Amino acid sequence: MSQTNHQPIRVLFVCLGNICRSPLAEGVFRKLVDEAGLSAHFEIDSAGTGPWHVGEPADRRMQRTARRYGVDLSKHVARQLSEKDLAYYDYIFVMDRENLEDVLHLDREGRFRDKVQLFRSFDPEPGNGEVPDPYYGGERGFETVYQIVERTARRLLQHLLAAHGLKETVGLSR
Question: 156: exposed, middle or buried (C-beta count within 10 Å: 0-12, 13-18, 19+)?
Answer without folding.
Answer: buried
